[in-house]
Amino acid sequence: MCPACQERTPQLELADRAARFWANLVDNSLVLLPLLGGGAADALLKDTHLPRGIFNAAGMMLMLGVLAYQAYLSKNGQSIGKRMRRIRVVRNDGGPAS
């Protein structure tokens, strides 16, 4: 950052690596674990006599969950992991990122 920008920028405390790591782990787990669980259930129950509609409905529920998570992100501007770790994403001037 240039010296002129540093003078105009408020002194903000940066999130440490551990806080960012845990926030990222929470965010990715919320999206990936249900998808992995659905894929594992599909593989394990593939040879059963359950109707395929059950798997289609489960897939649709997973997709709705991902869409709901994206809607939460767009509404609040902060992921669940960042909110849990109290991390804010801001511009250089301290204003909101979006």
Strand content: under 5%
Q: How would the global form be characterised? A: elongated
The structural class is mainly alpha
Q: How many strands in all?
A: 0
Mean pLDDT: 78
Distance between the termini: 21 Å
- Tell me roughly what share of residues is in helical segments: 55-70%
Order of helices and strands: HHHH
Rg over alpha carbons: 20 Å
Our count of helices gives 4
Uncertain spans, ≥5 residues at pLDDT below 50? none
What's the main sheet like? none
Main features:
98 residues; elongated; 4 helices; mainly alpha
Topology:
Elements: H1 3-8, H2 17-44, H3 52-76, H4 80-85
Question: If you had to describe this structure to a student in words, what would you say it looks like?
Answer:
The chain has 98 residues and is an all-alpha fold. The protein is 66% helix and 0% strand. The chain has helices at 3-8, 17-44, 52-76, 80-85. The longest helix is centred in the first third of the chain and has 28 residues, at 17-44. The protein starts with a helix and ends in a 13-residue tail after the last helix.
In brief, what are we looking at here?
This protein is mainly α. The chain has helices spanning 3-8, 17-44, 52-76, 80-85.
